[in-house]
Amino acid sequence: MFAGDQNGLQGDPRLKAISEAIRVVPHFPKPGIMFQDITTLLLDHKAFKDTVDIFVDRYRDMGISVVAGVEARGFMFGPSIALAIGAKFVPLRKPRKLPVNGVETCRHDDLILGASFGSPLNPTSKSD
């Protein structure tokens, strides 16, 4: 079943091509896991563009001002989507993955939001 079956994309030919562009690696990283390797999707220009376009089509007119991308896949798709919808992009990282100086962190479960001092997300300066 494609994700689009529940999101108004049923019958969209892009979904089949996207699904076929993703390599499935059985039993990685452990037995019973079917790892979805998107590197093959990223190598397929049309499938990658279609993936981004589906998100852009869905969120373009929703007034979104910031797109947050969770590492690592979010870093690959998030900036393209943010650029296309006219939003800013903020990477979300695991704890202790960002430098201490000059970065404000806000813990949420196992992720932290990194916003440079002086950014729209953290308008204060480091000296404040």
Tell me what you see in this structure.
The structure is a single chain. The chain has about 130 residues and is an alpha+beta fold. It has two domains: about 1-60, no CATH class; about 70-128, no CATH class. The chain has four helices and six strands, in the order αββααβαβββ. It has helices at about 15-20, 40-45, 45-60, 75-85; strands at about 25, 35, 65-70, 90-95, 105-110, 110-115. The strands form two sheets. It has a four-stranded mixed beta sheet with strand order 3-4-6-5, covered by helices on one side. A two-stranded antiparallel sheet has the order 1-2. Helix 1 (about 15-20) crosses helix 3. The longest helix has 15 residues, at about 45-60. It is flat, with a radius of gyration of 18 Å. About 10% of the residues are buried. Residues about 110-128 have low confidence and may be disordered. Keywords: Cytoplasm, Glycosyltransferase, Purine salvage, Transferase. It is found in: Cytoplasm. Belongs to the purine/pyrimidine phosphoribosyltransferase family.
